[in-house]
């Protein structure tokens, strides 16, 4: 498998505070990686830094995507390379419908104008996959959506944009059991040997349906332990406090 993402000695700060302290991470095509840790450990910070959010300043280290140093690239350029980030708390955008938002994004990323009726058929199909009424396509993006509907909206965008790297920030947070099943199935349907998933969770609900090859435990801005799927069971048994001594 070829390398898709490589993070080398990544230090990230917000203001005067350093939040990540020398993170190393390599993701190959076809792999599913899970990052676990308590709230405030730096999980979201890591994904936002990889995506290029300017709020998170990379003070040291490099980020490579398909062998290219993207450390200085803007968010939109990283998106065009095939990177996608779903938000932990998706915002609403009044005045732009979900259909127009996703169609414009698809056109921008691919550089190809999306024909209206084929796109409408695809959008309708993906909405049905997520057990969302087709009328959601005409609603303003996330406007008036429940927390679960906003999470499904993010997965809808992922399914249609088809990124090479999907970074999912606590997609299972706030979902009931049935919604977790639906979202998990859509993530699994998206995943193949040519793309990769980097999933953040501090629960293990979604991991009953999506089996990672690699698990990374992030504590206080450090990756303190790495392993395979067996690490999920170990965390469930011992909790995260057992790893604080590794910091």
Describe this structure in words.
The radius of gyration is 18 Å and the shape is globular. A hairpin with a 2-residue loop joins strand 1 (3-14) and strand 2 (17-28). Helix content is 33%, strand content 30%. Strands 6-9-10-3-11-12 form a 6-stranded mixed beta sheet, sandwiched between helices. The protein has a 4-stranded antiparallel beta sheet with strand order 2-1-4-5, with helices on one face. Strands 7-8 form a two-stranded antiparallel ribbon. The mean pLDDT is 94. The protein has 247 residues and is an alpha/beta fold.
Quick description:
This protein is of the alpha/beta class and 247 residues long. Helices cover 33% and strands 30% of the residues.
Question: What order do the helices and strands follow?
Answer: EEEHEEHEEHHEHEHEEEH
Number of helices: 7
Uncertain residue segments: none
What's the count of strands?
A: 12
Main sheet record: 6 strands, mixed
Major beta sheet, strand line-up: 6-9-10-3-11-12
Gyration radius from CA atoms, angstroms = 18 Å
Helix content: 25-40%
Query: How much of the residues is beta strand, in percent?
Result: 25-35%
User: What spatial form do the alpha-carbon principal axes imply?
Assistant: globular
| Terminal CA distance | 31 Å
What's the pLDDT, averaged over the residues? Answer: 94
């Amino acid at each position: 498998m070829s390398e898709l993402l490589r993070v080398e000695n990544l230090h990230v700060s917000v203001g005067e505070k350093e939040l990540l302290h020398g993170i190393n991470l390599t993701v190959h095509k076809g792999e599913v990686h899970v990052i676990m840790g308590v709230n405030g450990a730096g999980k979201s910070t890591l994904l936002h830094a990889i995506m290029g959010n300017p709020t998170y300043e990379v003070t040291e280290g490099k980020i490579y995507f398909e062998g290219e140093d993207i450390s200085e690239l803007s968010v939109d350029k990283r998106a065009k390379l095939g990177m996608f980030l779903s938000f932990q708390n998706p915002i609403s955008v009044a005045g732009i419908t979900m259909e127009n938002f996703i169609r414009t994004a698809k056109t921008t990323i691919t550089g190809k104008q999306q024909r209206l009726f084929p796109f409408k058929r695809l959008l309708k199909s993906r909405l049905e996959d997520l057990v969302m009424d087709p009328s959601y396509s005409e609603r303003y993006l996330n406007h008036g959506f429940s927390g679960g509907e906003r999470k499904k909206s993010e997965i809808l965008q992922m399914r249609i944009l088809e990124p090479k790297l999907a970074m999912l920030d606590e997609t299972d947070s706030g979902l009931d059991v049935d919604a977790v099943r639906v979202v998990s199935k859509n993530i699994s349907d998206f995943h193949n040997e040519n793309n990769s998933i980097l999933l953040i969770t501090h629960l293990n609900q979604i991991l009953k349906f999506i089996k990672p090859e690699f698990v990374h435990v992030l504590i206080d801005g450090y990756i303190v332990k790495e392993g395979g799927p067996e690490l999920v069971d170990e965390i469930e048994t011992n909790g995260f406090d057992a790893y604080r001594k590794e910091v």
